[in-house]
Amino acid sequence: MNISRAHWFRTPLAALALSLALTASLANAQKLLTEEGGGQALVALQRMQSNSTAPTPHNADGTPDLSGLWGPDKNFMYDITSALKPGETLPLQEWALKASKGHMSNEDPNVRCRPSGIPRMTPYPWKIVQTPKLVVFLYEGGPHGYRQIFLDRKEHSKDLDPTYYGESIGHWEGQTLVVDTIGFNDIFWFDGAGHPHTEKLHIVEHIRRPNMGHLEVDVTIDDPGAYTKTFTVYGHMNQLLNTEIMEYICDENNVDLPHIVGKDSRK
Questions:
Q1: Cα 59 to the chain's mean position, in Å?
Q2: Nearest-CA neighbor of 167 among 118, 99, 210, 126?
C-alpha cells in the first residue's frame, strides 16, 4: 500500500488534479478529487483509518499519549473557511482579502516544495513522537520536514528568526496539550485558497485525543497584520494503521508546476 501511495503522487494525473483543486472552490476541488482520480491517495489513507473508540492511551505520568500515525483533515488543505464553525467567516483585512483573491495557484509556496506551515496540512500522513519534554511532528509531505514542541520551556526565545513552523512551546491542561507558537515567516499560505498572514502571526493550538482512533485540534489564529480579529479553526484526524511515513522529497520529482495554469511568480 505504501508503494501505491508513493507511485500515485508522482504521476502527472495526480499533479494535474491537485493543481486544479488549488484553483477551484472547495466544492469544485472535492468534485475534482472524486471524479478525476485526485482523491486516490486520500482514499487509500481513508482505508487505513482506525475508527477505534477504545479508551485513550496514557503515559506513565497520566498525560494522554498522542503518539502514532495520523491522516490529514481535508478542511486544513483546501480552504480553512470550511474549518470554521458554521456561519462564521474569515475576518480578513481588505489587503489580505485582495491578496487571497489575486494569488495564482502556481505561486503557492507549498506546490513549490516549501513547508506547509500551520495550520495547513498536505494529503500525506504525519507522525507524532512524544516524550516527557518534547513532542515532534514528522511530515511525509512537502519537503519531508518536522516540527518540535518543547514541553520544558516557559517562555519563547528572544529575537527569533522567522521560520515556516515558528517556535512552539507546550504544556498540559488536564487531558489537553496547549501549544503556543510565534516566530513565523510570512511566506506560507494557510491553505490552497491562498489565505495569507504576516510575521505578527501568533497561534495557540489545543490538541486532544478523545479515544484511541481520533485526534482533535482547535487552532486559534491571531494575526493583527492580516485579520481584523482572532478566529479559531477546528480539525479532526484519524489514526492510521498498517502503514508508515515514507521518504518523499518533493523537489526531487516535482511534476506539479508544468501542469499548473497561472502566472509564474519566478518570471
A1: 26
A2: 118
Contact yes or no for 226/97 (Cβ under 8 A):
no
Q: Are 121 and 35 in contact (CB under 8 A)?
A: no
Cα 196 to Cα 36: distance, rounded to the nearest angstrom:
28
Contact 19, 260 (CB under 8 A): yes
Would you say the C-alpha torsion 162, 116, 75, 245 has a positive or negative sign? Answer: negative
Place of cell 498572514: 197
CA gap 83, 219 in Å, rounded: 10
pLDDT at 79 over 70: yes
Q: Are 189 and 108 in contact (CB under 8 A)?
A: yes
- Strands 134-139 and 167-173: what pairing? unpaired
Work out the number of other CB atoms within 10 angstroms of the CB of residue 105. Answer: 23
Residues 154-211: tens digit of each pLDDT: 999 999 999 999 999 999 999 999 999 999 999 999 999 999 999 999 999 999 999 9
Do strands 167-173 and 146-150 pair parallel, antiparallel, or not at all (unpaired)?
parallel
pLDDT, tens only, 106-153? 899 988 889 999 999 998 999 999 999 999 999 998 788 899 999 999
User: In this structure, how many other beta carbons lie within 10 angstroms of the beta carbon of residue 134?
Assistant: 14
Contact 203, 32 (CB under 8 A): no
DSSP 20: H
220's enclosing H/E stretch is strand 214-222
Domains of the chain: 52-248 (2.40.128.20)
